[in-house]
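Sequence dictates fold. Next comes a concrete instance:
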Amino acid sequence: MTNQDNRGEARAVIVISSHVARGSVGNRAAVFTLEALGFPVWAVPTVILPWHPGHGPATRIVPEADEFARFIHDLENAPWLGEVSAVLTGYLGGPEQATAIAGLVKTLKAHNPQARYVCDPVLGDKGGLYVPEATATAIRDQLLPLADITTPNRYELAWLTGMEISGTESAIRAARQAPPADVMVTSAPASSPDRLANLLVSETDVLRAVHDSIPSAPNGTGDLTAALYLARLLAGETREEALAKTTGSVVAILNKAAERGSNELMLETDRQILTRPEMSIEIEHVAETAEA
């Protein structure tokens, strides 16, 4: 069966991000989430760690650049490429990985123009970049222009666009400068310091899902959000439906982890929340100002 014949059955997602032995960050969060919602996954580790480095010193194993490139090239030429409906990328182990991934995305889209690429640009947070600047630059220059959707936090979006983000209007302006058609800004400013928002800026409108801030939230929230949103779009939901359910699931899972005192997301325990959000999130349609 050719890729063209197989295209209607494409459901697999290639997920390219970090792998930890303990915890639910990077590929561990994204793969579990996508599979829980019924999507087969081809998982590619960009770096292997015993745990999230935020927990303390951790051995870091990064594939050699040429070996990683050959691995990705094998996927480009796989006889099962017609199974693939999307690519999701997260944390990269080095700038050379972006070049290889860009080739894979281009090949997939040549086989299947309907395939989606979600770039979660894992670069840093309010403390600044936590990847080398060369890696951040490679994501900005090589991967972001290929993406259909990107899911930066507010600080990553500011770095990617060189624009200061102080509120909703400035976040919208920055999102409009990013190449992808759809930009979901996570941890976007809301009406008060104890509130945050997922702000989805598309070519046609701006949607906002506001929620309470959760102090000391476990790592992996961005990975979980990107995977959930992609899964719900692949399932045929509208942007508004996908944003509401994604935000509802993520906030409920974070609340559960906080109640348990866990320093990790507990996706295996809260699996049912991935498929059936316990929290209802109201979506606001944000009116844009002339400057936005």
